[in-house]
Sequence to fold (468 residues):
Amino acid sequence: MNVRKGIVIGGALLALVGLMSSPRLLFGSDEVRAKELIQQACVQCHRLEGQPDSRFNLRAPDLIWAGSKYQRLWLIRWLTGKEAPLYAKGYRWDLSEGAVKHPVVSEADANAMADYFEKNNKDQRVKVGAFDVSKVSKFDVTFGGMAYKAHACLGCHTIEENGKLIGGPQSAALQNAGQRYNMDWLFRFGQNPQDFTVHNGEFLADATEPQLRAVIGYLAAQGVKDFKFYEPWTSPEFGMASADRGKVIYKEYCSQCHGATGKGDGPAASGLEPKPAIHANIPFEKLPIDYLYNVINHGGAALGKSPNMPYWNLTIGQQGVADVMAYLKATFKGVPDMAAAPGGGEGDACVQARKTAKAPDEFLAKTNPLPASTGTIQAGKTLFLKSAQPVACAMCHGEQGDGKGFMGAALVPQPRNFTCGAMMKDIPDGQLYWIIKNGSPGTGMMSFAGLPDEQVWQLIHYIRSLVK
Ligand code: HEC
Ligand code: HEC
Ligand code: HEC
Ligand code: HEC
Fold:
């Protein structure tokens, strides 16, 4: 059986080489030539028409929709032998056939075939423009990456994370998906995979359309260097934002929790932990715009904060978010004497009433695996002051780490004062680690679940270095 297959494949390669060396004038046009080539060198493995079928019955992925599925540059690279295999364990996952070297054609033939597919193998179900890659924001990619993992995609498709391939290599590799797929096709595929593939271990995810869009956005960025993220706050809606309209939105939608004058004392507030932020204490001009946009548009839970802060995108739309942001900036300027307030750190006076939950024992037993070197502390400092996602620690914990960041005054209880030696000496590394990863439920301390372990430990070294 295996021997016979070997002969067939060898035969295909031979036929291909023969065709490539035959004079071009044999064929009437590139299209005819491409058709001949495909008939002679591709169809023994690939189908160009028919209904979705199982990999157990097929010899190679279907090319029925080849005119809609691929980005042209990728297709040319694939056909000219410049791409790594997509199915690490071979296409037939019953392992009846090992990985096979794919036939290679010349650049000119590859182009002719790409033209042929575009003309003859377009998929009418794919709506051109259904997925707009230029509207994929950084948030979408992060959120899509989480959805990708939450919906088991990683179980059967590999991706690259921190320079390493992760995931189960059962089906098509997705680490370079952003270079490979036409995103309109990918979006249509995601709407119902069984329109394309059946009975081979495929999986239908229970994802909403926004989640599907985020996953496609995430895939669109995989393997793309310098992916250009969409920044919603540069959209026309923000250009024509109106604080007056925002005022009305605030009254109708925000004040029920945040209070009519932004003091965090709306009718719903009494039953909420953490309390709605005290907007009156936030200098909104200083808040990073991506963070402010995301927390209003996508809600608290999407950023590791309280799910009681709703996601407003569906209710008030992009214009509403732009307007209410304009209102927040025009109205609330923060607490003027916040920065001037004494920093603490002297004696026991700095100790905060700490009701923070205690980490489980296995966490408390952890010690920092990194050396307290200048490099580690510097890396922690950069994260703390600037680069931690979704937002830098300093915004709440302060540039000095004294708990007096400009957002701090909006939160009850207030952020931890890391300069206070009398208090910090009793908090073990494992406790700090656990809170950074999970947040402190019922407080403004959000979870930074997305930070890699190494960065959390860098932050802990930096926090320790702040003690006065
Ligand atoms: C001997 C069988 C065989 C022949 C002949 C063959 N292919 Fe393939 N092709 C495969 C297999 C198997 C894969 C999956 C590759 C992998 O494991 O990475 C594949 C993958 C592809 C893909 C990517 C499919 C996808 O969407 O995952 C394209 C495009 C493709 N082939 C085009 C062609 C064209 C065009 C020809 C003719 C010049 C051709 N192939 C000839 C076996 C074959
Ligand atoms: C249980 C295994 C499994 C899981 C989980 C799974 N897939 Fe798949 N996926 C498959 C199989 C099998 C196919 C069929 C294509 C093939 O391998 O022949 C497929 C096909 C695909 C394709 C088309 C590949 C191509 O180039 O033709 C994409 C894209 C894809 N899946 C994305 C996802 C996403 C996104 C998720 C998570 C929501 C997911 N898959 C979850 C097994 C899985
Ligand atoms: C159902 C109650 C509720 C409503 C309505 C509500 N919020 Fe919130 N909001 C909260 C809660 C609770 C928090 C605190 C979240 C946390 O700290 O985890 C919060 C926090 C915030 C924050 C600060 C985020 C931070 O980093 O601490 C902003 C900004 C905000 N809300 C804006 C708005 C705007 C604008 C509206 C109206 C469009 C609104 N909220 C409506 C409950 C609400
Ligand atoms: C939106 C405001 C906010 C941001 C941003 C924030 N924190 Fe906090 N943090 C708090 C608040 C409020 C507390 C107090 C929580 C409590 O009392 O349980 C806190 C407490 C902590 C604690 C104390 C844990 C304990 O057991 O006492 C640690 C450690 C901590 N934060 C680390 C960080 C790090 C590291 C970052 C950045 C990656 C960060 N925080 C970003 C608000 C914030």
